[in-house]
Amino acid sequence: MTSAEKISTSGHALQGIRVLDFTWIHAGPSATRVLADQGAEVIKVESNQALAVVGGPSSATARGLGQRHNWNAGKRSISLDMKTPQGVAIAKRLVGVSDVVAENFSRRVMPGWGMDYQSVRNIKPDVIMLSMSGFGRTGPWKDRVSYGQTLQAYSGFTELTGFPDADPCGPASAYSDAVGGMAGAQA
């Protein structure tokens, strides 16, 4: 049965679509959470080295763990050490059986694993790749790393919040991460 046949007979829009999810923190995992909610099989690639930050700054608290579980609900999970040839080899095998590869790292991470867009396409020519780096893959800011609060400050959003007689304070959460996640899911 083809992916198109699976989709046409399912109750969910993305039934039969497999997403290999390399995302972390908030924006990326919330994008792939939407895809899982729409019926996609999402395989979350995690590292036991990065678990302390995947839930956000408060990941050691119940709130942080709750966020992590919320963003990754409905997903399958595999822990790979992408710093080893074995971890990269397993990830590349998963690319070969996935329809979508999603990541939200700086532009250096995926190529460092030998998994830039062209390399991923060499494994699976019809793959869709969602790359959500905050400052893009080209241009003068391409090497900058981004988090929600960073983008809010660069965009001027932080200046729009607070009270008239006080310094700008920014929102209590990374609003741009939530918006970025929704935009990523729609892409």
Describe this structure as you would to a colleague:
This protein has 187 residues and is α/β, with parallel strands linked by helices. The protein has one domain (10-144, 178-186): Rossmann fold (3-Layer(aba) Sandwich). 37% of the residues lie in helices and 12% in strands. It has helices spanning 3-8, 27-37, 62-71, 85-96, 109-112, 117-123, 148-155, 175-186; strands at 18-21, 41-46, 76-79, 100-103, 128-131. Strands 3-2-1-4-5 form a five-stranded parallel β-sheet, with helices on both faces. Helix 7 crosses helix 8 (175-186). It is globular, with a radius of gyration of 17 Å.
Name of the CATH homologous superfamily = Crotonobetainyl-coa:carnitine coa-transferase, domain 1
CATH topology: Rossmann fold
Give the overall silhouette.
Answer: globular
The chain-level mean pLDDT equals: 84
Helical residue percent?
25-40%
Q: What is the CATH architecture term?
A: 3-Layer(aba) Sandwich
Please describe the biggest sheet, giving its number of strands, its sense, and whether it closes into a barrel: 5 strands, parallel
The gyration radius over C-alpha positions equals 17 Å
Terminal CA distance reads 26 Å
Indicate how many domains the architecture comprises: 1
Describe the strand arrangement of the main beta sheet, using strand numbers. Answer: 3-2-1-4-5
Classified by CATH, the class is: Alpha Beta
Counted beta strands: 5
What's the order of the H and E elements? Answer: HEHEHEHEHHEHH
Uncertain ranges: 54-59
Structural class given helices, strands, pairing? Answer: alpha/beta
In percent terms, what proportion of residues is strand?
Answer: 5-15%
Report the total helices.
8
Pfam family, one: CoA_transf_3
Keywords: Transferase
Protein name: CoA transferase
GO molecular function: transferase activity
